[in-house]
Amino acid sequence: MSRGNSSVASESNPDVRRLADWSAGALRELAAEYGTPLYVQDLDRVRENHERLAAAFPDAGVHYAVKANAGRAVLETLREAGAGAESVPAGTKNAPVGAECASAGEVYRALEAGFAPAGIHYTAVNPPARDLAFVLEEAPEVTVVAGARDTITRLDERGFSGRLALRVHPGVGAGHSEAVATGADAKFGVPVDRAPGLLDAAAARDFDVVGVHAHAGSGMLSDADVATHREVVERVASVARETTVDLEFVDVGGGFGVPYRPDEAPLDLDAVADATRDALASVDAKLVVEPGRYLVADASVLLATVNTVKQTAGATLAGVDAGMTTLLRPALYDARHEVRSLAADANDRPERRASVVGPVCESTDVLAEDRSLPRPERGDLLAVGNAGAYGVEMANQYNSRPRPAVVALADGDHRLVRERDSLSDLTASER
Ligand code: LLP
What we know:
Layout: H1 24-34, E1 38-42, H2 43-56, E2 61-62, E3 64-65, H3 72-81, E4 99-101, H4 104-112, E5 120-124, H5 129-138, E6 143-146, H6 149-157, E7 163-169, E8 190-191, H7 195-204, E9 208-213, H8 223-242, E10 249-251, H9 269-279, E11 286-289, H10 293-296, E12 300-311, E13 316-320, H11 329-333, E14 339-341, E15 351-357, E16 366-374, E17 381-384, E18 405-410, E19 413-418, H12 423-427
Parallel strand pairs: 1-18, 2-11, 3-4, 4-5, 5-6, 6-7, 7-8, 7-9, 9-10, 10-11, 13-15
Antiparallel strand pairs: 1-12, 12-13, 12-17, 14-17, 15-16, 18-19
Helix pairs in contact: 2-3, 4-5, 8-9
The structure holds ligand LLP.
């Protein structure tokens, strides 16, 4: 495999887009037009991210991890950008793009967005029967990535004899939080030492056994994370060497991190690609990667309006109209997102220690804790950075809060791609 080249990381396509790089004026205009809370999603930046990723992994199949952001506009953008064009088996009919799907719902969305079934990997984690039924019925050409022997048995019982890959549990994990270091969690995949035997046994049945898979975790950024990723790849490579099956691909998952703090350096993607290729050097199979976050995180910000300002003994509380139902990551993982005041006179205001809190009746409903911000005032517009991955995707209606609207920017224009839930949407499915 040849070496990557991220020379596209230039002025026009920098390794990272920071919150400070967004135009305050343009964001204020969008908030005025569509209201808040509002996700602003820059599809041109999604394309740039894909371009850098593809340059670092020129020989790999890229399967976008749909769970990071399953919006139709994002899926169509990546499909058009050619994600996965290389990952399609030779001779497969016209399947130029790839998607990694975690559920029947994600497969449904990927198909709706025009992904060819043959370019879809369905990562079946304890798959509900309804999911299996849908996927095998509607898209039998998918590659099913099974993570348990039991899942293979269930596929067999359903008469599936299509493309099968095995997810390996590497036993080590990496990521921004223990909660997402899936490689260390036995829920995902089969143990390394049992994998070659399972692959051989599946091939002896009717399955078309095509690959092995492992995923270290989500949000790798440090050198230690990259070393863990390498370890994971070495373990999955050992499975590929030991099985007697002639594998088409080794899928090393996603997990490529992005910096959430302004002073954090971006991931050295070439170093990750080199480590991946080194670890796979003795394996004669195609490399597949499944990035989610890397492609979409810095392409989006969340806009919120300050509606209440409260002085407490410790800090100023800026109460906003977005919260843990709009962006769950801070509450769930203690994740850090930058916050920027877009008030026109922000630069003239004194700095305050402030926390940004939402409208939900939970103490965990905090978007940012104890930050230095221009003194918040009611009516201010705030932007929350790096909101594109697992942002709107994890939005929910707890406290009967309508999920936010999403506006997409592309080619100098903008359009509403997801309407804000109305109050009647909240009860629309009740009987
Ligand atoms: N492939 C598999 C099998 C995965 O489980 C995941 C993520 C990915 C690929 C994509 O990982 P990424 O490139 O996006 O890091 N909600 C959490 C992240 C959960 C990730 C779960 N699996 C968060 O907000 O940080």
